[in-house]
Amino acid sequence: MRTVYFSRDYSPHDHRFLTALAATEHEVYYLRLERSPQGLESRPIPDSIKVVDWWGGRRRLRLADWPRAMYETRRTLRSLSPDLVHAGPVQSPAFLTAVSGGHPLLTMSWGSDLLWKARSGWGRWAARWTLRRSDAFTCDCDAVRRRAVALGAAEDRIFVFPWGVDLDRFQPGPAGPLREQSGFDPDDLVLLSTRPWEPFYGVPELVEAFVQAAADLPALRLWMIGRGSLRPSIERQLQEAGLTGHVRLDEPVTNEQMPAVYRASDLYLSASHGDGSSVSLMEAMACGLPALVSDIPGNREWVLPGDNGWWFTTGSSESLAGGLRKAVEGREALEGMGARSRTIAELRADWDQNFKVLMQAYEFTAARAK
User: Fold this and answer.
1) How far apart are CA 303 and CA 165, in angstroms?
2) Residues 33, 92: contact at Cβ < 8 Å?
3) pLDDT of residue 92
4) Average pLDDT of 29-56?
5) Of the candidates 13, 326, 316, 346, which has an alpha carbon nearest to the alpha carbon of residue 191?
6) 3-state DSSP assignment of residue 272
7) How confident is residue 231, by pLDDT bands cut at 50, 70 and 90?
8) Helix (H, G, I), strand (E, B) or coil at 215
9) Is 106 exposed, middle or buried (0-12, 13-18, 19+ CB in 10 A)?
10) d(Cα 304, Cα 319) in Å, to the nearest integer?
11) What average pLDDT does the segment 233-261 reach?
């Protein structure tokens, strides 16, 4: 089957899908809409994937570029004449495919496109327009599925599967030398955050909560791996609180290094305002970490309060600080919680098993053209 995989950029998630697709019998063409200046993924695109040399994929799109993007998408898809177009996020590649008459179209949500960007205005209109013209739809959790149905997706054409992780690579193990090399002592309680340093991911309240909790919990250490526009304000806030020695700010590391990072940590944090099935959360769970996460629908599907972690009120630094205190008070229970996280990951986050659902979606979508 001649398949076009049309995505916004080249991220670790795209690498995951393209690598899996390269191992199938599909003839896969990769259409890239934009290019991030700093780069999102350093691993090469699999050799068998045919990268389309077209107008897009060279830089970030501006508002003025959209008419040209529509024209070029239509022209490129017609020249490729695919049996299936797999496109997402909803308001960008999937929307452009629908506008261009690309068919059959399997629209794939990336979570925030429907949970956050489709709340109102153009984002909501574009999502409704695209979903009603899609031959099938796939997403990573029930929260996104419900949102898609509310926006007009046909319920009998939806395929739900968590994107999952490589359970052989992401698995529990000893902390190893990385914990000590990173400046953490054995008695420290290392809190790990891997989300981008932007307001959408709740970074301001996460840092404020740490400042509140660390005032009377000296064992707390915060390890933030990422980058983003909030770095200057994060550094300023920590300096004013006298906590720069209690926080480590690191640039993103490679996917190969991430299992060691999880194993060197004690508790995974995410304050995101909108997620589907977060891959970083699943990675942390697969490595045996309990989690303290914002109380949003996507997180509720993975974290059970008191079992493998806790929820806190989304957007509330006070609630998050309370969760940190609860983790310290119940520190002796964290190892058992982490073991239950691993069990949940084995049952539901196995990428090799979950990918089979995408292949079922491909067969269903391609049949719509017959």
Assistant:
1) 16
2) yes
3) 97
4) 93
5) 326
6) coil
7) very high
8) coil
9) buried
10) 17
11) 95
Taking each helix axis from N to C terminus, what angle separates 334-348 and 279-286, rounded to the nearest 10 degrees? 120
CA nearest neighbour of 170 among 263, 277, 283, 8: 283
Task: Please report where in the chains the tokens 């040399």 appear, as a residue.
Answer: 53
For 320-346, write each residue's pLDDT tens digit: 999 999 999 999 999 999 999 999 999
C-beta of residue 221 within 8 angstroms of C-beta of residue 247: yes
Residues in the chain: 370
Domains of the chain: 2-164+351-367 (3.40.50.2000), 177-348 (3.40.50.2000)
Q: Read off the pLDDT band of 370 (50, 70, 90).
A: low
DSSP string, 57-93: SSS---GGGHHHHHHHHHHHHHHH--SEEEEESIIII
Q: Is the pTM of this model over 0.70?
A: yes
Dist. CA 239–CA 245, nearest whole Å: 9
Helices (H) and strands (E) in the chain, counts: 15, 13
Helix axes 231-240, 203-214, angle to 10 degrees: 10
Evaluate if residue 38 carries a pLDDT over 80: no
The two three-digit tokens of residue 140, written as one number: 């990573």
Helix 351-367 to helix 12-22 angle (10° resolution) is 70
Phi, psi torsion values for 108, nearest 5 degrees: -120, 125
Peptide bond into 89 cis (omega under 30): yes
CA distance 202 to 317: 9
Distance CA(100)–CA(111), nearest Å, equals 23
Q: Which amino acid is at 321?
A: A
Residue 369: pLDDT band with limits 50, 70, 90: confident
Residue 128 phi, psi (nearest 5): -60, -45
Q: Which residue type does 183 have?
A: G
What torsion do the CA atoms of 9, 10, 13, 19 make, to the nearest 10 degrees? 140
